[in-house]
Amino acid sequence: MELTAPNRLSTLEIVLDGLMRRYQERVPDVGGIIAAMQEAGLIAQPGDIENDHIAFRTMGVPQLGIASLERIFLHYGYQKRDYYNFPAKKLNAYWYAPPQPEYPRIFISELRVDDLSETAQRIIRSYTDEVATDPVDALDLDDGAAVDAFLHQALWRLPTLSDYETLAAESEYAAWVIYNRYYLNHFTITIHNLPESANTIAKFNDFLEARGFQLNDSGGKIKVSDDGLLLQSSTVAQMIDAEFADGRGGTVTRSISGSYVEFAERRPLPEFSDAAALDRAQRRDGFEASNADKIFESTYSDQTRKRG
Questions:
Q1: CA distance 150 to 69
Q2: 172-180 helix and 161-170 helix, angle to the nearest 10 degrees
Q3: Can you give the CATH number for the domain in which 193 is found?
Q4: What is the pLDDT of residues 8-59, one digit of tens each?
Q5: Which domain holds residue 268?
Q6: Is 63 left (phi over 0), alpha (psi -120 to 50) or beta?
Q7: What is the pLDDT of residue 3?
């Protein structure tokens, strides 16, 4: 029997909690930043953090990509919004507005596989072709535990290190997805509602760097939208020990980029610039392609090699 809207929100919470729990286990920066915020009195407890958005990366092939993954969140009441194009990185993306303001926005991107070289396409499809049909067709979207498990399971065989390195040479996004699949790429801490000492991206970046966190400096540490109302920054992705197939029946381990943490300051819309108290609808919404283009590079080797 199909769930009612309140029950779907309960299921959504199970899915989001599962994503965040596994993400935090995999990205030590999350716990480190939360602990630093508590120590500084910026929050009293982790639950005080407002999650601006979460993001996923996908492969743009017929049975996967945005068209497949978005079905999960549309089922829970998310609404599809603006399209974004990233020509140099060969990516499409959309963002999704949550069913209620307390839930995070969602940003889903996909690699335009057909735009890559024949070699890269052949490698990618050798994996994605193992997924013969849209896997969401077989998923009970009203079963939060099943959806959580799906988002953290292998979609295809363990990649070989050779395939990963070949893809990385052409598209670091492709290499990230071939290994990490639907693992949460990042979550985003809302900055503008923090105490005055840290309620701008500039001040929060200073707070982070004073405590040793490495920030993505591609395009500058602060990424600013054309209208000046959306400011973003991010940590550099943490490295993980990844196990690859060696092509001879065994495995080999390499250190590769995992996930990162993002930060967002959404300034008031012009008509609300003098308001004493602002709700979410009175601040800049959506995303900015130029900002996101540089945030993507939080997992790229030009940034991760700076972690030392």
A1: 11
A2: 150
A3: 3.10.180.50
A4: 999 999 999 999 999 999 899 999 999 999 999 999 999 999 999 999 999 9
A5: 5-307
A6: alpha
A7: 59
Distance CA 182, CA 70 (A): 12
With residue 240 as reference, give the H or E element that holds it.
Answer: strand 239-245
Task: Pull the structure tokens for residue 41.
Answer: 């009195």
Size of the chain in residues: 308
Query: Measured at the alpha carbon of residue 88, what is the angle toward residues 30 and 51, in degrees to the nearest 5?
Result: 25
Residue 58 host element (H or E):
strand 51-59
DSSP 135: G
Cβ-contact 262, 51 below 8 angstroms: no
CA dist 112 and 107 (Å) reads 16
Instruction: Give Cα 106 distance to the centre of its chain.
Output: 8
For residue 251, give the amino acid letter.
Answer: T
Instruction: Give me 218's structure tokens.
Output: 């591609």
As for how many domains the chain has, the answer is 1
